[in-house]
Structure formats: C-alpha cells, structure tokens
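Thread: "does anyone have the structure for this chain?"

Original post by V.I.:
We have the sequence but no experimental structure in hand. Need at least a predicted one for the grant figures.
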Amino acid sequence: MAITITMGIQKGGCGKSTTTGILAHLLSKDFKVLAVDMDSQGNLSELLTQQPSNEFVNKSVLEAMQQEDARSFVVSVSENLDVLPANNFLATFARWIYTGHTYHGDHLPYKGNISFILDKLLDQVRDDYDFILIDTAPSLSEQTTNALCASEYVVVMFECSNWCYSAIPNFMDTVTAANKVSHRNVEVLGILRTMNDVRRSDAKAFNELIEEDYPDDVFETIITRKAPTGRLSLYGFEDNKELGPALTQYQDFYKELIQRVNDR
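Reply from O.Q.:
Generated one for you, tokens below.
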C-alpha cells in the first residue's frame, strides 16, 4: 500500500509544486508513484505533463472526487509516474461540497465527512503505487485539509523569510488537528528549507532560526535558488540539457526523505 506524503505550507512562493514534481520524478526511478495536484493553479500538472492545466478541464482530480472514480482520471507521465491533474476549476471545491453548485451543473451537497473526500478517493488506488505525493494550495483550505487527512506524512516547506516563518506555527496546528481526526495519523516528516538566497544575510538568519525552533524536524539539505531548477517549468524532465544541475541538490533531500520514511 502506498505511503502518502503531502507537501504543504499556507504561503505561496515556497517551491511546493517544483519540489513535489522533482520528488515525484526522483521517486519514480525506484518506485511506482502517483502525484496528486490539489492546487487550482495546476502548476504540478503542467510541470509533469508539459501541458497547460486547461487541457484537464473535465478530466481532473475535481471530477475524480465528484464522481468517486480515481482511475478514470489518472494521467500517465512515464512508466512509473502518474498524475491526478488539476486546473483552475478546483477552486470551486469548497462551493461544491457545501452547496452542490459546480461549473458544470448543480448536484447535491456532499454527504459525509468533508475532510475525507480525497482520502476515500485515493483508497481506490493505494495498492497500485509505492508512493503518493500531494501538492497543496497556499492556504489552510478544504483542499489542504483533505490532503493532510489522506496522508501519513507531511513535508513542511519553508522559504527562508519572515512571512513564511510566521506561517509555520499555524500550519503545524493544522497538521495536529488533522492528526486527531484522521485514521492515518499524519505526522511531520520534516521541514525543508527552500528557495534559499545565499547572498542574503536575513535568509541565513531564518534558516538558523527555524533549525533552533524545530531541531528534530529540519532536513539537513537546504535548497538554494538555481536558474536550471527555475527553468524546469519551461523544459520539463525529458530532453532537458539542464536536468542534472536542476536536480543535483534535490538528490540529497530525496535520500534524507527515504531514510526518514524507513526509520518510522
């Protein structure tokens, strides 16, 4: 049965989608992986498929949840990597579950625990994969809650800035709340320091501060800003001459993550 990991923080610009996509790519070299895009921006879907997210209108994770049918909406990326894609209509998720109104017609409001919609959907395919990775929206929304309640672990993304530092306690509280209600007992696998600018002294200070606050949680790997990594959204993972330099520092994070999962 798949190990399910959410990548999250309620602040934008922290590298969630890029990190999720890279981790999915690296994992797929050794394991069978499903990436789930729970962010209506659809950036993970675009990164992995190299198609505009609008290509997945009526063919996304939103329809999969509404129709309670995961397999019909899975998109194959490579032999060992699939994605449940998203597009901007995922932003109507909360409206659908509370009112039944959707962009393609009206339905009855969702009946059941609204925090477990994604969890129930993924139960249909957990035996098909070794890992399921979930990218989340930059908010403490129903989408994020569903992701946490569907996961055993969460990697907390930390972009080394004051606003991200102030977001961490609220996100940790959300993980604790999900842990109390979900039978998957989600726990923090680690805090990944990312988007680090080595030229800035304040970035160095926040990296050290988060390590002081959460010494047992931070990954040793610190992801720095690199142009080849930033251009992954343009060139993708196939026929990309910059792929090696783009992924190098994530290899260490990948090894740390696998070790932590194995130690649990």
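V.I.: this helps a lot. The two ends are 15 Å apart (CA to CA).
O.Q.: and The CA atoms of residues 180 and 186 lie 9 Å apart.
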